Amino acid sequence: MTVATAGHRTPAGPEPAGVDNRLVVGGATLTWRTLPLPVLPDPSAVLAHSAVHALTAARQHAVYGTELLLSTASRVDAAMRVELLDAGFTVSVLDDDGAHPSVPPRRRAAEPGRLWLLTSGSTGRPKRVGHTLDTLTTVRADQPDRTWLCPYAPGTYAWWQVVTLSLTQPGQHLVVVEPDELDDWPTVAATHGVDAASGTPTFWRRTLYRDAAALARVPLRQITLGGEPVDQAILDQLRDIFPAARISWIYASSEVGASIVVHDGRAGFPVDWLDRETPGRPTLSVVDDELVVTSPFHGAGLAGPVRTGDRVQVRDDRVLITGRLDSDEINVGGSKVSAGVVRGVLAEHPAVAWARVTGRRAPVLGRMVVAEVVLAPTTHLDTAEAALVRWCADRLPEYAVPRRIRVLTEIPVKESLKSDV
């Protein structure tokens, strides 16, 4: 890669502790130290052409403290580009030939050290949330040496979580996969000795569906899930393949940072974590079935309790996150149904590799429950819909049983590695 370097700019501070960690990206093996430093205006919104260009932008920020918003071009439409220019960012496409800038109509002073993240936009247009490398770095204790897989889209909160771990901790190496490598990532991971991987539940389900045998050949010792509701079925499937690995799930967002980390192999978190105040740790609460987080890792301007928009359900000794408030609840003739609960029941069926549950308009009832599923490759269900309806009827109230179940042939996934379940 040929990138114009930053010349004689003064570094913002000492080199990060992980500067000599190994990076495997685009078929090349590098280190953070050997990445070229692009010339970036300050402040900059960088639309990275590939994973290696995103890493160079992150390295440039770590060295020089340039105010930075990092994303892929596909996540920033024309209206968002105009919005960023109006906010004083120089918007640059970063590729092998360097940065190709669009200059803002009005320049402004940069905010040193500021990092901006774009939210997923699941509840409307993406919003900018301010962070720093410090607020994005939530793993601070010494870690055993690991080689991490990073499958996330550059600039997302999950991407920064893996990247800051590698930047700030010695011995935390990184293998980054491009979108066109996702279908074959277990082969890439096994080749480069990946023993730790982070992904959404959809990412893991899709891998299991496509080639569970290839996944089993990756020597994983740490498996992390996040970004979507995590149910017991996916945890158990991963445990069956990797009985000795530590399997963790994380609740995190651009707004409140990494707020929940669970290592016990069970979906949900312990109910006694609610309203527990511990210095330096998030406080978790439930208000009107919504998860509320007060976090030391929050984005700029979000101090105090933050309503997350995620619905929770207390079941016995666990608090389960079932989905978004605006999409999880289905009103069936006056009875409230959690789409997440129905999805969890479907996912527990051994023939189901993935499920999505939604509401559809219906006469008399107003809404009815419907579902889409992908069946496991070895499944032979001639009457899959009828069998799954019976499965749900044995485990759910009558009004919560899906009235239609459509079988898909592939697990849908977006650039975020989510499938909007």
From TrEMBL:
Residues 70-290 form the AMP-dependent synthetase/ligase domain. Pfam families: AMP-binding (PF00501), AMP-binding_C (PF13193). One of its GO terms (molecular function) is acid-thiol ligase activity. The keyword Ligase applies. Residues 345-416 form the AMP-binding enzyme C-terminal domain. Signal peptide: none annotated. Keywords: Ligase. It comes from the Bacteria. This is Acyl-CoA synthetase (AMP-forming)/AMP-acid ligase II.
